[in-house]
Amino acid sequence: MSGFIGRGVQIAALNKILEQIAVNDDNKPGQALLMRGRRRVGKSRLVEEFLDRAGVPNVFFTASKQTTQEELQFFAQAVLESSLPDKAVFDGVNFESWDAALRLLATALPSEVPSVVVIDELPYLMESDQAFEGTLQKIFDRYLSRHKVLFIGIGSDLAMMEALNEYGRPFHQRATEIVIPPLSPAEVADMLGLSAADAFDAYLITGGLPLICNEWRKGLSIWKFLEGALSSSTSALIVSGERSIAAEFPPDAQARNVLTAIGSGERTFSNIGKASGGLQQTSISRSLKILTDKRIVVAELPLSTKSSKETRYRIADPYIRFWLSFLGPNFAEIERGRGDRVLEKIRTSWTSWRGRTIEPIIRESIERIPNPRQPDVSAVVGAYWTRTNQPEIDLVVADRGRVASAILEVGSIKWLEKAPFGMAELNQLIVHRAELPGATSDTPLVIVSRSGFNVAPTPDVRELSPEDLLNAWR
Fold first, then answer.
1. pLDDT (average), residues 377-394
2. What gap in Å lies between CA 94 and CA 177, rounded to an integer?
């Protein structure tokens, strides 16, 4: 396949499993793999690329939220169009159950060489047929695993895919799990030919989704890309958000209102309720549970040595946050050919929107960087706030999450063009450090700036540039 970008680690992992199957002479050499990741992150594309490179007999079936009988028909057709050597056994067969279809599949697999069976959108089959999960486990144990086969189940419903392998479920401990993340900021930088700072901007817009990145010509600035993308209502930037939300979002109007409120920038329970049209507390709580269970929204607590109940909420995926902030609410204008007006709205709000949205990306980047003072500690990076936001601290590096036992660093972020991190910001950080539970006057500081630093270098202050943050992803 042409145009395939990155994913070297995942391709290598799949190849390793297939090689193990090929040389395994046990009576049950078959293995199962459960692959999950956000919708449109490139899971199916990755497996297609793996199959093309591996060149082994395979069948790739994608479920589509149809009735069980319709899915069985589509499955039989997928087998007939596959490269399995004995696929003809499916010719003219009508199945009444997945038990019968999967039993027959086992007879179509080669006996001496490895093969691959892929079921994409596995959660759809689990939703339409409550017995499917148990049937799959039974057939895999009794029939499929006796062949040199790699079974790959793919799903975008993160919670449901995680639950498949849990204790007490039929498939418990039968499958290896692999999570497919979006392209990292470093992969986005390499793919688009951007500087470190601009690559993080591109990551906030695309979320690292390959389909959107493929529309971004190498070296193009974010504003030139947005100008082109907003001129077409069918661009991947425009349509991916609505399709992702429609496909994985529960049919709950109140939860959609709550999601929209969070996407507009509201973070606290009370403000989310107000922005959602004054929903009752029970409705807001139920909606937030749906959203967090689906991994669409993240609930966060302040990080310090003191417990807190001041929960804040944010959209997990930066692209979905971008879409909810700028594209979804203005889709009618884009359809009318007035993408220029939407672009101007983005320009007007960009600095403040980016400043808030980049924070969790920076925290994750810092977690990947070994701390020179304590290189052996796996630090957790969070933030700290109070009900009144006095103080509100961008970065708290601690020895563990939720309630820390030690604060390792306290930090601040300044993510502006042509505005270096100066002494005024450093002095404010020192004041805030004194108000953080668990920090002392000796607690080291970490400062992050998009545009350099204008402070006197001192041993207790660690400076991190966009280049430092990007290298953390390499």
1. 95
2. 32
Taking a C-beta distance cutoff of 8 angstroms, is the pair 161, 295 a contact?
no
pLDDT band at 49; cut points 50, 70, 90: very high
Distance, in Å, from the CA atom of 377 to the CA atom of 379, rounded to the nearest integer, reads: 6
Which of helix, strand or coil describes residue 131?
coil
Structure tokens at 251: 């049919």
* Strand 445-449, strand 312-315: pairing: unpaired
Q: Where do runs of H (alpha helix) occur along 169-252?
A: 185-192, 196-206, 210-213, 222-229, 236-248
CA distance 257 to 276: 5
Q: Residues 231-264: pLDDT tens digits?
A: 999 999 999 998 887 766 656 668 888 999 999 9
- The single-letter code of the amino acid at 409 is E
Residue type, 183: L
How big is the CA angle at 341 (ends 271 and 355), to the nearest 5 degrees?
45
CB 22 within 8 A of CB 56: no
Q: CB–CB of 362/469 below 8 Å?
A: yes
Tens-place pLDDT, residues 388-413: 999 999 999 999 998 999 999 999 99
Distance, CA of 437 to CA of 421 (rounded, Å):
25
Could you tell me the two tokens for 197?
């700072």
Strands (E), 63-158: 115-120, 149-155
Q: Which two structure tokens, joined as six digits, stand for 95?
A: 């199945």
Query: What is the three-class DSSP state of 185?
Result: helix
φ, ψ at 120 (rounded to 5°): -90, 150
As a whole number of angstroms, the distance between CA 158 and CA 413 comes to 31
CA-to-CA dists, residue 180 to 47, 127, 154, 157, 209, angstroms: 11, 22, 10, 13, 11
